Amino acid sequence: MMRSPELEKMPRAELEKLQIERLQEKVKDVYEKVPFYRRAFKEKEVTPDDIQTPADLKKLPFTIKLDFRDNYPYGLLAVPPEEIVRIHSSSGTTGKPIIAPYTQGDVDTWAEIMARTLATSGVTREDVLQNAYGYGLFTGGLGFHYGAELLGASVVPTSGGNTKRQILLIQDLGATVITCTPSYALILAETALDMGVDLRETRLRLGVLGAEPWSEQMRQDIEERLGIIAINIYGLTEIIGPGVSVECPHKCGMHIAEDHFLVELIDPQTEEPVPYGQEGELVITTLTKEAQPVIRFRTRDIVSLNPEPCECGRTMTRMSRVTGRSDDMLIVRGVNVFPSQIESVLLEVEGVEPHYLIVVDRKHAFKSDELEVWVEVSEDVFSDEMQKMEALEKKLRSEMDSVLGISARIKLVEPKTIARTEGKAKRVVDRSEL
Amino acid sequence: MKVEQVSVFVENQPGRLEAILEVLESKQISIQALSISETAEFGIVRMILADPDAGHEALRQASFTTRKDWILAAEIPDVPGGLLNSVAKPLADAGVNLKYFYAYLEHAVNKAMVVLKTDDLEKAEQVLKAKTG
User: Fold this and answer.
1) In this model, does residue A305 exceed pLDDT 90?
2) Which of A207, A154, A203, A147 is nearest to A180 (CA)?
3) What is the mean predicted confidence (pLDDT) over A6-28?
4) CATH code for the structural domain at A330-433
5) Parallel, antiparallel, or unpaired: how do β-strands A128-131 and A154-156 relate?
6) Where exactly does CATH 3.40.50.12780 map onto chain A?
7) CB within 8 A of A203, min separation 6: which ones?
8) Which helix or strand (DSSP H or E) is residue A207 part of?
9) What span, in angstroms and rounded, lies between the C-alpha atoms of A132 and B31?
10) A199 within 8 A of A225, measured Cβ to Cβ
11) Residues of chain A whose C-beta is under 8 A from some C-beta in B?
């Protein structure tokens, strides 16, 4: 379903015109109102008047995560504090969190973007949508909530956790759509199984899943176990929260809401543009955000872009799923390794559970530089014969070798050894944390 | 004769066998034979239980990765060469490969029991039937 066909099917030339108009206005806005940007512009010797075509974008300075921390909490505001009606925040693993303030205008825009996003994914007003993203500081819960309500779906705001109750409600209220992280979708399936419930026999038909990187194999696994179509959604706290991009049911890339977000793709090392079809780091400029507009935010997410119109008729640029993070990238014995590569190897081996943990030894990286992957042993791969277990270990090791280009130590572990997280799954730990 | 064996995947760590035995004790399931095959990292605990279905289910409920398989049990004379002549030699002569085997508690006088897994269950059963009855 297209909520705003006039925007979603807009010819590229018209869209670019809209983008440059909005960009010029936003650049002027931050230059006048945010000292941080004024300084950054001056350092690059650029003023708002220099921005005349989309190509001029690259004259502007980048914004990085650290800039948010350095200007915590209100240093990047472009409106008077009394205009703020809501503040979200990222989980922030170290140091200060990143805050996301919204004006009433931002809240309304976000709800509209999310309503369009959910419609794109296949949600309609007839759906009962169980929203298992965490409500609170995290943008996921309320972001989905407001969008789904605006779309007219019936929202069941379960938030994260209390998995058994989630399963009872899916059954009793006849939820047709589940929104949560992909790893939580698997927890739901696992818990349902423990309770003797087959989620495939419920009315669930669609999952809109995101907030953490996942893989195509994990999608297949989720679709099979829950009996749903699993749709990928993307967003970031720094930009708006969920709603930056989403797949349509064709599942061939996530349509970026380009009327609100201007994207570029760069080489994370050289900062030079990367051509369509190749992988690079996604850079986003907000075009409509009022409270905390962001210029050229380096997302650290590695994706590729496709500007071709989709079969569904939408003209907006599509982005691939996030295949890695430029700062999550592990460098083991001089080779770049993304956790997503390891996941894809595991899922290719028949019967292996997608529950894994990558253990690295950062402290002793110079000495041992060791990569260890913990893999849970499911009933499907367990054998009473040692030979077969050793063959499994060997197979995982050799697949890992060929995909990663370096060898990893495989450690087979008992089920549920690896902590289940209800928010974002933690995939990489340092040995010192164990 | 065929018997059902329950096997369990465990990490090679203190307390893991204990955890299995506690599950079985709580369900009052007795163990008739047990063997552990291990690597530095993990082990396979194989057991012949008085009630394999209940044991398997209880271990599963306790979140162990477990499975049930049909293997062979054979009663052999408790004399020098008993195992050789009634099990090992006949199987070797028939070209059946032993994957693993372990001993079984047997209360009968002058008898011993072994359980074994081979690469050919049916053939091994026939061979042993002829030898051990």
Assistant:
1) yes
2) A207
3) 96
4) 3.30.300.30
5) parallel
6) 1-326
7) A128, A174, A175, A176
8) strand A206-210
9) 44
10) yes
11) 377-379, 382-387, 389-390, 411-417
ipTM of the complex: 0.88
Model pLDDT, residue A421: 58
- pLDDT at residue B133 above 60? no
Q: Which residue in the set A386, A413, A417 is minimally distant from B44, CB to CB?
A: A386
Distance CA B27, CA B7 (A): 17
Domains and CATH numbers, chain B: 2-69 (3.30.2130.10), 71-132 (3.30.70.260)
Nearest CA in chain A to B66: A379
DSSP, residue by residue, B16-61: HHHHHHHHHHHTT--EEEEEEEE-SSEEEEEEEESSHHHHHHHHHH
pLDDT number for residue A367: 47
The one-letter amino acid code at A227 reads: G
Residue A425 banded pLDDT, cuts 50, 70, 90:
low
Tell me the shortest Cα–Cα distance from B64 to chain A, in angstroms.
Answer: 7
Minimum mean pLDDT range among A112-126, A213-227, A397-411, B46-60: A397-411
- Residue A200, token pair as written in the block: 């495939």
Beta-bridge partner residues of A86: A102
Share of chain B above pLDDT 90, in %: 70
d(C-alpha A298, C-alpha A279), whole Å: 14
Token code pair at residue A399? 């697949």
- A159 in Cβ contact with A141 (< 8 Å): yes
CATH 3.30.300.30 residue ranges in chain A?
330-433
Q: Each residue of A60-71: pLDDT tens digit? A: 999 998 899 889
pLDDT for position A256: 98
3.40.630.30, 3.40.50.12780, 3.40.50.1010, 3.40.30.10: which CATH number matches A1-326? 3.40.50.12780
Mutate to test the interface with B, among A414, A416, A417 (most CBs of B within 10 A): A414
CA proximity to B101, closest of B48, B24, B60, B57? B48
Q: Looking at A81-95, A184-198, A250-264, which range is the least confident one?
A: A81-95
| B63 Cβ neighbours under 8 A, 6+ residues apart | A414, A415, A416
pLDDT band of A420, cuts 50, 70, 90: low
Per-residue pLDDT band for A333 (boundaries 50, 70, 90) equals low
Show residues of chain B in contact with A413, CB under 8 Å.
11, 42
Quote the mean pLDDT of chain A: 90
Residues of B with CB under 8 A from a CB of A: 5, 7, 9-11, 16, 37, 39, 41-42, 44, 46, 63-67, 69, 99-100, 117
Chain A environment of B100 (Cβ under 8 Å): 385-386
d(CA A426, CA A91): 13
